[in-house]
Amino acid sequence: MNFLTELNIKDKNFGASTGLEWNTTTDQGEIEITSPVDGKKIASVYLASTADYDKLVTTSQEAFKKWRLVPGPKRGEIVRQIGIQLRKYKDALGTLVSYEMGKSLQEGKGEVQEMIDICDFAVGQSRQLYGNTMASERELHRMYDQYHPLGIVGTISAFNFPVAVWSWNAMIATVCGDTNLWKPSSKAPLCAIAVQNILSEVIKDNKLPEGLFNLIVGRGSSVGEKMLNDKRVPLISITGSTKVGRHGAEVIAGRFGKSILELGGNNAIILTPHANLTMALPAIVFGAVGTAGQRCTTTRRLIIHESIYDNVKEAIVKAYGGLKIGNPLDENNHVGPLIDKGAVEDFLNALKKVQEEGGRVICGGSVLEGEGFESNCYVIPAVAEVENSYEIVQEETFAPILYLIKYSGEVENALLLQNDVVQGLSSAIFTENLGEAELFLSAAGSDCGLANVNIGTSGAEIGGAFGGEKETGGGRESGSDAWKAYMRRQTNTINYGKTLPLAQGIKFDI
């Protein structure tokens, strides 16, 4: 495949890199990467060892000593060049994302575009690492705060966004003066290796310090745990399940490290009687079936007012009947495969539990077989009528299942249902009633980190801080002032007078 050659993906690949060199460890096992698109082997990766990990961290520590002294705008220039390289490889990398992970080619290329966009954002951010000046209560004193580079920033990414989530963290961390250590999902490591190959061109061209960008593909039980426990890595961003995030946060907090957690979502769209259904329908369907339901911002619950429930249900079922399921490299298809057979089992088990709890599957829900579906990872997206209180509805099933939930009365009742889950990532309401929209966005409204009016739950822009509340973790990545998490804050006071007045008017004469 030409895109693999273009990205320098070999039949066998090593699992650790400092940006200039790859390790040569081969005794830790080898993972074979199979595409969910057609069930065929793409390539394999030799897993890295804990010794490889230590080498990366040591090299990264040395790189940090140099990189932290480079002026912010010059760090931004490096990120600008990374963005240029990503533009050059957009089609190839987007195709690999689609083929290795299974999302549609449009989404694969869109994910690389998101990397490009965050590079552009970070370039501007490199000149805006602002601190504040505060009024001192003491005469002839100046008080202000400033931000300094933090050190090595670790990113543990998930399979569903195999490159974009890393870039949200790494590009911001880079302009902040940090170095980077990336542990990608073992379900989609080739995308990370391809990115590392792209980065190496920028590193070599600019004679950057080895260890600025580090990659390690290794077992979670060894390399992953070592990373979580490593005091040399002051900040780790973790994207994954709530279970993974809870464990990671506890370990990192135990050593007084910092963590950014982007965990589960159980996202809802509210449809009030004042909703524009023509606008809402495509947002609902894309939100529910995009990336085959494997986004943390996937629309999982549709909370519908009883007065429009039957019409909405009919429209949803009709729209699902028109979905084209198949090879995601064919841009005519809407829905590709799930990541693996384990995800298919989760999909089927969730639908079984829906029925056991009293719900009803009204369309979809089966596994596709035969020509074009040889990987056994393709399913027909499902729609089910449920109650919000069902145990399975309270969970996040990483698959294309849309739950229809009816509400009556005022929009406050819909908000109670929306907020009555342990996750708090993304949320949306469709209404043309100003009062309903403002209530949804108020302190008494959505309790999620992302709250949208008249757009869906997925597709967040990089300019805003991304993240959620409750068991979603509370972290923020990407835009707005999320950059502050990647730096250490310092308050400074300067006395430029000839006396030493003390704060709070304290007198201390000697």
Number of strands: 23
- The N- to C-terminal Cα distance equals 80 Å
Q: Multimeric state of these chains?
A: single chain
How many H/I helical runs?
15
Q: For the residues shown, what is the average pLDDT?
A: 97
Query: Beta-sheet strand percentage?
Result: 15-25%
Question: Major sheet: size, sense and barrel closure?
Answer: 7 strands, mixed
What does this structure look like?
- The chain is α/β, with parallel strands linked by helices and about 500 residues long.
- The protein contains 15 helices and 23 strands.
- The chain has helices at about 1-5, 50-65, 70-90, 90-100, 105-125, 165-175, 190-205, 220-230, 240-255, 275-290, 310-320, 340-355, 390-395, 410-420, 435-440; strands spanning about 10-15, 15, 30-35, 40-45, 135, 140-150, 150-155, 180-185, 215, 235-240, 260, 265-270, 300-305, 360-365, 380-385, 400-405, 425, 425-430, 450-455, 465, 470, 475-480, 485-495.
- The strands form six sheets. A seven-stranded mixed sheet has the order 14-15-16-13-12-18-19, sandwiched between helices. Strands 2-9-8-7-10-11 form a six-stranded mixed sheet, with helices on both faces.
- Helix 4 (about 90-100) packs across helix 5.
- The chain is globular.
- The model has no long low-confidence stretch (mean pLDDT about 95).
In short, what is this structure?
This protein is of the alpha/beta class and 510 residues long.
